[in-house]
Fold this sequence. Notes:
Elements: E1 5-9, E2 30-31, E3 34-35, H1 36-46, E4 51-56, H2 61-66, H3 71-79, H4 83-91, E5 99-103, H5 110-115, H6 118-121, E6 126-129, E7 133-136, H7 141-152, E8 155-161, E9 171-179, E10 182-190, E11 201-209, H8 213-218, H9 230-237, E12 243-247, E13 251-254, H10 258-270, H11 276-287
Parallel strand pairs: 1-4, 1-6, 4-5, 8-12
Antiparallel strand pairs: 2-3, 6-11, 7-13, 8-11, 9-10, 10-12
Bound molecules: uridine 5'-triphosphate.
Amino acid sequence: MPIRKAVLPVAGFGTRVLPATKVVPKEMLPVVDRPAIQYVVDEALAAGIEHIVFVTGRNKGAIEDYFDHSYELEEALKAKNKTAILEDVEKARLPAGAASFVRQQSAQGLGHAIWCARDIVGSEPFAVLLPDVLVKAAPSCLAQMVSAYDQVGGNIVAVDAVPEDRVSSYGVIAPKSRDGRLIEMSGMVEKPAQADAPSNLKITGRYILQPEIFDLLEDQDPGAGGEIQLTDSMARLMESQSFHAYEYEGQDYDCGSKIGYFDAVLAYALANDEIGEEAKALVRAAAS
Ligand code: UTP
C-alpha cells in the first residue's frame, strides 16, 4: 500500500527554546522567510503525501491558521499587485480536505501524540515527520525513504551517523546487515551510554510505520522521562515486523534546540537565492 498520510506531532511544549515558545509554537519559528513547519510539510508533499494529520494542543492555533486561506491578506496583496508574495502565501495553503487537526489534550509524549492520530490514519501504513527537525536534502528525506519502502516494505526509520561521543543524546539503532544506505535492524536503544551503543546511527525524526503500531501505543507504559515513547512501541513491533533504517543523504537540523535552530537559520539563509550572498558577507564579517 502506498504511503498517503503523514502525521506531524506539534503538541509539545518546546521548553528548550523558551521563552520564544511561550506564545508562538516552536514549529512556527521562522527559518529565513517561512515557519519551520512549512519546510516539513513541503518535504511530505514532495514525497507524495496526500493528507497531513497535525496533532496539536492548546496555544497551537497559529498552525491551523497558517495552512488556511487568509482572505483579507490575500485580497490586500492582490489589490496592490504584489503577485510574487501572493503566490508564496497561496502556496502555503493545503488543498481542501488534505489536512486534519486532532488534539492531544495533554503532552504525554511522542508515542501518545502519534496514537491520537489513529482514527484518521486508519489501517494503512503512514509517515511520521517531527516538525522541529528540518532535513535539507534533494530528493527530500521522506522521498528517499519512500523509495526504500517501495523495495522492502515494513517499517523504516531515517538514520544519520553522529560522532561516537554524542550517541548518548539520541535514539540509536542496532544494525544487523547492510545493503548500501538500507540497513536491516535488530534493535534500537534510547540514549545509550557510549560504551553500550550498538552503533553511532541516530534516529532522525522521520518514520514510515505500519498501522499495528497503534495497538501497541494504546497499552504502552510510560518510559524515559515518564512519557509514552514511540521508540518503546517500535521496539515491541520489531518482534513481529521487519524494520529497516535508511541512512539518508542530506543534513538535519534540530530546531527544538537553540544551537540547532541557529544552525538551521544560518544554513537556509546561506542557501537562499535572494539573500544568500549578503548572508555570506555578513558571516565573513562577523567571523573576522
Ligand atoms: P520534542 O521532545 O522534541 O518536543 O518532541 P517538545 O516536547 O516540544 O520539546 P522540549 O523537550 O519541551 O523542548 C518532538 C516532537 O513531538 C511533539 C513536539 O511538538 C515535537 O514536534 N510532541 C512531543 C507532541 O506532539 N506531544 C508530546 O507529548 C511530545
